[in-house]
Amino acid sequence: MKILLVDDDPVALEILQTALAYAGHQTVEARNGEEAWSVLARDPVQIIVSDWMMPKLDGLELCKRIRARRSRDYVYFVLLTARSDKENYRTAMEKGVDDFLAKPFRCDELLIRLRVAERILGVMSQVKELKSLLPICSYCKRIRDDRDYWHQIESYIHAQTGTDFTHSICPQCYQEHIKPYLEESRRRAPVAV
Q1: CA–CA separation, 28 vs 102, rounded Å?
Q2: pLDDT confidence bin for 82, thresholds 50/70/90
Q3: Which residues contact 140 (CB under 8 A, 6 or more apart)?
Q4: Mean pLDDT, residues 121-148
Q5: What is the spatial distance between Cα 39 and Cα 50, in angstroms, rounded to a whole number?
Q6: What is the dihedral of CA 79, 80, 81, 84, to 10 degrees?
Q7: Phi-psi region for residue 39, left (φ > 0), alpha (ψ -120 to 50) or beta?
Q8: What pLDDT does 160 receive?
Q9: Domains along the sequence of the chain with CATH
């Protein structure tokens, strides 16, 4: 799993990188939130471990920016900080931080939290996959919704996306269904004298 490490302290960044590499994680590093934002644009990651207090763009503002963007993939955000009181914890959680670790911390404590992050991301991936499956009747082509009601395809898709439908007949169905019907109709039609 690729992890973006963000800290303006080069020593702290090196310690984090070494510990995570030793645990088998691939890392990308940034020295502040602005640099991290640029890294994210070209190198998507699943987890960010960021210091709170940094120049240019701090960790909390970076998290807010990430939560505000429109992305299909969730990024798990761990905030590292010396600000460990309840009010700062609440502020961080309200801004979208997933986990909060007070400095100084032990590397094994961070690794445990990263395992939890991986489990959560795995479950989120499974949920996303299940939501992308659409139960459809093999015979009538109706779609079952989350409340176990069956809907015509057109009404279901319209309710979900606002899409309206126009109807037509594809060439294959024309050949298989319409053309034989028209030929049979002509054959049965009375001949005008």
Answers
A1: 22
A2: confident
A3: none
A4: 82
A5: 13
A6: 70
A7: alpha
A8: 79
A9: 2-131 (3.40.50.2300), 143-188 (no CATH)
Radius of gyration of the chain (CA): 28
- Give the list of residues 6+ apart from residue 1 with CB closer than 8 angstroms, or none: 25, 26, 46, 47, 114, 118, 121
Residue at token pair 């961080």: 92
0.85 exceeded by pTM: no
6, 55, 121, 183, 191 from 145: Cα distances, Å: 42, 49, 25, 40, 52
Give the C-alpha distances (Å, rounded to integers) separating 177 from 22, 130, 166.
Answer: 66, 36, 19
Give the DSSP letter of residue 25.
-
Q: Which amino acid is at 164?
A: D
Task: Give which of 44, 56, 50 is closest to 30, Cα–Cα.
Answer: 50
Identity (one letter) of the amino acid at 41? Answer: A
- Given the structure tokens 């090196």, which residue do they identify? 14
